Amino acid sequence: MSSIIVAKQEQRQIRTYEKNEKLLIQEGGYISPIPNLWEDILIGVVLKKPILLKGPSGSGKTKLAQSISEFFQQPMHSVNCSVDLDAESLLGFKTIISKEGQTVIEFVEGPVVQAMKEGHILYIDEINMAKPETLPILHSVLDHRRMLTNPFTGEVIHAHEDFTVIAAINEGYVGTSPMNEALKNRFVSFTIPYLAGVQLREIIQNLFPQAGVSLVESIMNINEDLKKQVMNGLLSEEAASVRSLLDAMALAEHIPVRRAIQYAIAEKLDDKMEQKLVMELVDTWVK
Asked: Where is the AAA+ ATPase domain positioned along the sequence (predicted)?
């Protein structure tokens, strides 16, 4: 592990990290399908670089952010972006309260302000779902200045030295728009692919220790076929979501595999032909 990460851990006085992926699984953490990806992202965090996680739905971006929070023992504040996201959702809002018999106006701090002041992680999920005009308010937070003038209070906030920003995007999905260059250039970007092979099998076996060998094999084979059809352009990316696959596995411990895949994967797809293809793939492995 990079000495810069170890040094940062000592600075924050947190426990020593053991380079053992099984430990991360047991703690519900993220496992990287790409060598060095996990450590490279940690280095970016230590260097105070805003981190952008790009990948399909269900590839583990939120789990990765949660694992970083666990690794550094740093609380995380989440912002779920949508077209309705506004400055108040990010920074906070004024409200009228009764205090010592008097009516006063108090400012309730939002996730950005809280994370900056406390040195916590700010996780911005689906950042490309937000309206482009909403996000420029974060530009000074994300660049070398690491500061913000709160338009609601006039307060100038300088970020705590441990303040970290992690954002995630699902590229090409309905309702998303390309990030403007001024915003994108403030991030260090990492592509987060789906888990596969030995790592995926290990997660399944750890999460479902009572599952039979034949059930695990069926789920693994179905997943491989789904990924192939995604790569061939015949299925949407969400058909190969690890999150959905684990949902299917949980159901399959109690109901037939075919129905489990139908509920957890096929029914989530909007295209009827894609739904049919998923079930045809299942039928090649489940009789």
From this structure: 47-198
Phi and psi based region of residue 101 (left: phi greater than 0; alpha: psi -120 to 50; beta: remaining):
left
Residue span of the structural domain in which 124 resides: 3-191
Do 256 and 179 share a structural domain?
no
Domain boundary among 172, 191, 210: 191
Chain centroid, CA 47 distance in Å? 20
Task: Encode pLDDT of 200-214 as tens digits.
Answer: 888 898 889 999 999
Rounded CA gap, 37 and 30, in Å?
11
Regarding whether 226 and 147 lie in a shared domain, the answer is no
Instruction: Provide the edge-to-edge strand list for the sheet that holds 188-191.
Output: 76-80, 121-125, 164-169, 51-54, 188-191
pLDDT tens digits, one per residue of 243-279:
899 999 999 999 999 999 999 999 999 899 999 999 9
Contact 59, 194 (CB under 8 A): yes
Cβ-contact 201, 21 below 8 angstroms: no
Are the CB atoms for 37 and 175 separated by under 8 Å?
A: no
pLDDT, position 50: 97
Answer for the pair 205, 216: CB distance below 8 angstroms, yes or no: yes
55 is written with which tokens?
């990948």
